[in-house]
Amino acid sequence: MELVVLSSELESAFADFYHDFIKHDPENADFYARGTENFADYVRQLQDEEEGINLPDGYVPCSHLWLVENAVILGAIRIRHHIENDFLSLEGGHIGYDVAPSARGRGNGKVMLKLALSKACELGIRKALITADEDNIASRKVIESNGGIFESVVMGKVFPEPIARYWVSCEL
Q: What are the N-acetyltransferase domain coordinates in residue numbering (predicted)?
């Protein structure tokens, strides 16, 4: 199991990942729909985001990594290089992730976040803000199992739901 950058070799695995969301978690599938329209452009867009190129207003540089095992994408994780805007500093945080619906409940989120914290450290992030919907107990356990220290629950402004905020030390 490893974190990798999305590449053309993973196009088929990405399609399977997306269809898993469509079938089992359709409300979160939209985030990945762009990759089904033109995969090469999608990969290029993610690379540009990491480099801070052509970012939409309010976006910050962001590394997109994929948890892969045996050519199967088990999850996706995003590491925002800084959180210097209102949305990220309140509710988005440094790191966001999704575990493929068929890969949930098997510790993949814990492994993915652990691997991503080392990458965050390499990016110069010493303490990462990681958030989860207050009622998403599975995600909160992933954060806590990686040393997350609960700070508070806040009401989101962009997504007006209660959000649990955690701080996690990043180490190499």
A: 4-172
